[in-house]
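User: Show me a protein chain along with its predicted structure.
Assistant: Here is one chain, sequence first, then structure tokens.
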Amino acid sequence: MAGVSSIYLASRSPRRRELLHQLGIQYEVLTQRIKSERGPDVNEDPLPGEKPRDYVVRVCRDKVESAWLRVVQRKLPLRGVLAADTTVCIGDEILGTPADAAAAADFLARLSGREHEVLTAIAFKFGERMQAELSATTVRFRTLEPAEIERYVASGEPMDKAGAYGIQGHAGAFVTEIRGSYSGVMGLPLYETALLLKRFGFGPP
């Protein structure tokens, strides 16, 4: 990747953009495929018997492969592509992005007063070379009252987030303990991302 000074970020998440900026990496957001392009769709449904860690790594790897195909199909300048995927799990049960307010309230009620795990996989691809890393963080919630779950869901904050909460938002007040990566819970683990990018020749300026 000699002479390449920036990468593509295959994510629209403002949180991931902020975290990547924190690392001092120059990037361009890679937009979604246009209708005329054809490529493999990313299946984000868990496969039968698939464990959460296997699931999040598979989805992330599929995302970066699909994004790289976009670069090639659009004849964009060849730069490495970074993708990420985050999921929340209780044991082997995956809590993805809630489909609606009722699902968000159900997720939060199940997270109330207990530990859960937040898994964020990252993958980077340039040409035929692709590598992935996984960040696993244990988070404990205090007991949540039904009324505060209702208020939080009504705020709209949970609706686009794995497990129906964002630790960097109002739900930060629910967390009594965290063991692992705070930035990983936000959606882009800084340590693992810096490590991965360094392998491809990228680092802080």
